[in-house]
């Protein structure tokens, strides 16, 4: 559908597809499924973050009520928070690209 889309559009389309492929029929993920998805699909961003208080807060929140559901918007907010605190983001920012 986004064959001619920008890199950013393709990235978001991929994100939506991964979420939708793991979501239930209501389009939601349990907190336990969210945690698992983050650990399998977002590993490089969360690697080494285990001792950071914000990371511990996010994971603790997912562990509190593992069966309660989150929607795509909450999933995106979680990804943004984890990305912003990631050491990998700092490495990415230091990479210079030319077009």
From TrEMBL:
InterPro entries: EF-hand-dom_pair, S-100_dom, S100_Ca-bd_sub. GO terms for molecular function: calcium ion binding; calcium-dependent protein binding; transition metal ion binding. CDD domains: S-100. It holds the Pfam family S_100. Residues 8-47 form the S100/CaBP-9k-type calcium binding subdomain domain. Transmembrane segments: none annotated. SMART domains: S_100. It comes from the Eukaryota. This is SNTAN protein. It comes from Neopipo cinnamomea. The lineage of its organism: Eukaryota, Metazoa, Chordata, Craniata, Vertebrata. The gene is Sntn.
């Amino acid at each position: 559908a986004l064959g001619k889309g920008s890199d950013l559009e393709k990235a978001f389309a991929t994100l939506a597809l991964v979420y939708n492929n793991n979501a239930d029929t209501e389009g939601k993920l349990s907190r336990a499924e969210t945690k698992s998805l983050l650990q399998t699909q977002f590993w490089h961003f969360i690697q080494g973050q285990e001792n950071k208080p914000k990371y511990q807060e996010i994971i603790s929140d997912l562990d509190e009520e593992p069966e309660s559901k989150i929607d795509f918007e909450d999933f995106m907010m979680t990804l943004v928070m984890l990305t912003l605190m990631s050491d990998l983001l700092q490495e990415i920012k230091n990479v210079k690209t030319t077009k």
